[in-house]
Design goal:
With 528 residues, the protein is of the alpha/beta class. It is built from 17 helices and 22 strands. The strands form four sheets. Strands 8-7-6-9-10-11-12 form a seven-stranded parallel sheet, sandwiched between helices. The protein has a six-stranded mixed sheet with strand order 14-13-15-16-17-18. The chain has a five-stranded parallel sheet with strand order 2-1-3-4-5. It binds 1,4-dihydronicotinamide adenine dinucleotide and 2-oxo-3-(phosphonooxy)propanoic acid. Catalyzes the reversible oxidation of 3-phospho-D-glycerate to 3-phosphonooxypyruvate, the first step of the phosphorylated L-serine biosynthesis pathway. Also catalyzes the reversible oxidation of 2-hydroxyglutarate to 2-oxoglutarate.
Length: 528
């Protein structure tokens, strides 16, 4: 039974899903990094929010981990690069808390405009300071949106409803989308100069870190009010403090901080600052949404191989997963076959071509090609799998091409792989027999029909009499049982290939004896 660790506060809805799906869920929020490292090795999945920091050190200890599910959007608390290198899928739930977070941003904007928290505190203190709290209207004000993705778009929609003018800076926002949203796409400097309110809705990346730097804060309109419901690192907090103190920035509402939990900050002392403890996603509805989604996604992946909302792997829908499963196996085996034939003396792999024909042409290819690369690179690299294989291939400069043939194939379905090392290119093709069983149908342009056995012997030889008898004799001499024996040849008396499935590993001496046969050019032992 797969085991999942829930290391942050997740709605109990997640536990119910895991239980129903037959997955053991262990709930342990609030562990220290050392405590987490001590137990993570026992788990196949990890479900988190923003509190758990998934560092390289934690991943080093996560020897069984296959999937990390983030019940929420931001994954800046996960070292995705290290997870990918270790073959761990990282998923998030990109929509489940978007409305809630957008509503929090709008709520904070109102709180700033009317100083609601201070007015509430003053009233509760019995002061009745009716003249102290003079607010500003939102109607006809300009809202500057930095980041117009899921959350930013919802904020824009609500702000337009409040009769605000919305300008947006987002390099990936198209003019057409801006028109649909009823907003104006502008450059950052224009936004800074025009906005009465600024709200941030980008992920924290190297490009967005400090996007409201001291320099950019100085470019804002005097009296601007700033809302940050995205990530702490987007604003230079010291520069913001200074701008608030000087009155250049009239107010700031912060849900997120550079260091969290934020239990002390000079900003807390300022009257014109409203703070919430990273509550953007904290509604019953959003927490139920993200908990259910993450539990379903983790379960689907661990139980069926379906991949949803992964940030480091191609998606495989729940509907596609069973259909792709035999193809994944075929691709992995074809890759493994080609990989095992690629001897170091031939040089490094420079190019891989993958062709899909017949029924295979109509499938989702990215996961299939990833499975093929996993098989291909496994003999050369440790710990390679579908998640990290495409990255390894790219990092090693392997040029990959995929071709889909929309033509009638001799086979109902066919996958062909061409691997180039130095100036040599080898091809291997396979099909699914009966729609489910992987079968080799061609090696180096020679037709040969063979199932993949656990132990196999691959021989290239001259098509001359005597080879079969001598080869069989060597195997018999070592008491090695032959399961299947398949032959193919390019032409009568020409190049031939022989694939022998045997019941156990062949001793090295027998392999040497086969290589010494006069007809034999190459003999390689393969394992699947
Ligand atoms: N306070 C909270 O509890 C929550 C905070 N968040 C934060 O909100 C962020 C945004 O969430 P979504 O809108 O769902 O993400 P999204 O991916 O839909 O949108 C992000 C937008 O930022 C834009 N962007 C990327 N780089 C940019 C740059 N350099 N300059 C300007 N725009 C840039 C992208 O083009 C995209 O449109 C998340 O990454 C997360 O950090 C999300 C949920 C809850
Ligand atoms: O989804 C996000 O990106 C959030 O920031 C929400 O964080 P949380 O799950 O409330 O810790």
């Amino acid at each position: 039974m797969p085991k999942v660790l829930i290391s942050d506060q997740l709605s109990p809805a997640a536990i119910d899903v895991f239980k129903q799906r037959g997955i053991e869920a262990v709930v342990k929020p609030g562990l220290t990094p050392a405590e987490l490292r001590a137990i993570i090795g026992a788990f196949d999945g990890l479900a988190i929010r923003s509190a758990t920091k998934v560092t390289r050190e934690l991943l080093d200890a996560a020897t069984n981990l296959k999937v990390i599910g983030r019940a929420g959007i931001g994954i800046d608390n996960v070292d995705v690069k290290s997870a990918t290198a270790r073959g761990v899928v990282v998923m998030n739930t990109p929509y489940g808390n978007a409305i809630t977070t957008a509503e929090h941003a709008i709520g904070l904007m109102f709180a700033l405009a009317r100083q609601l928290p201070e007015a509430s505190a003053s009233t509760k203190a019995g002061k009745w300071e009716k003249n102290r709290f003079m607010g500003v209207e939102l109607t006809n004000k300009t809202l500057g949106l930095i980041g117009a993705g899921n959350i930013g778009s919802i904020v824009a929609d609500r702000a337009v409803g409040l009769k605000m003018r919305v300008v947006a800076y987002d390099p990936y926002l198209t003019e057409a989308r801006a028109t649909v949203l009823g907003i104006e796409k502008v450059e950052l400097d224009t936004l800074l100069a025009r906005a009465d309110f600024i709200t941030l809705h980008t992920p924290l990346t190297e490009q967005t870190r400090n996007i409201l730097s001291r320099e950019n804060l100085a470019k804002t309109k005097k009296g601007v009010r700033i809302v940050n419901c995205a990530r702490g690192g987007l604003i230079d907090e010291t520069a913001l403090y200074d701008a608030l103190q000087s009155g250049h920035v009239a107010g700031a509402a912060l849900d997120v901080f550079e260091v969290e939990p934020a239990t002390a900050s000079p900003l807390f002392a300022l009257e014109n600052v409203v703070c919430t403890p990273h509550l953007g996603a904290a509604t019953t509805e959003a927490q139920e949404n993200v908990a259910l989604q993450v539990a379903e996604q983790i379960s689907d992946f661990l139980l069926t191989g379906a991949v949803t909302n992964a940030v480091n792997m191609a998606s495989v829908s729940a509907e596609d997963a069973p259909r792709l499963k035999p193809y994944m196996q075929l691709c992995q085996l074809l890759g493994s076959f080609a990989g095992q034939l690629t001897e170091a003396r031939h040089g490094v792999i420079t190019k891989v071509g993958i062709e899909y024909e017949g029924a295979a042409a109509h499938l989702n290819h990215r996961p299939l090609s990833a499975a093929l690369f996993a098989g291909l690179l496994a003999p050369m690299m440790e710990g390679v799998n579908m998640v990290n294989a495409p990255v390894f291939a790219r990092d090693h400069g392997i040029d990959m091409s995929e071709t889909v043939h929309d033509r009638d194939s001799e086979y109902q379905t066919l996958v062909r792989i061409s691997v180039t090392t130095g100036d040599q290119t080898r091809t291997v093709s396979g099909t699914l027999f009966g729609g489910a069983k992987p079968r080799l149908v061609e090696v180096k342009g020679i037709k040969v029909e063979a199932d993949f056995g656990r132990h196999m012997l691959y021989v290239t030889n001259q098509d001359k009499p005597g080879f079969i008898a001598r080869c069989s004799a060597i195997l018999a001499e070592k008491n090695i049982n032959i399961a299947t024996f398949h032959l193919g040849r390019a032409s009568e008396g020409g190049d031939a290939v022989c694939l022998i499935s045997i019941d156990e590993t062949l001793p090295e001496a027998a392999l040497v004896a086969i290589r010494a046969l006069p007809q034999v050019m190459q003999a390689t032992q393969l394992a699947f």
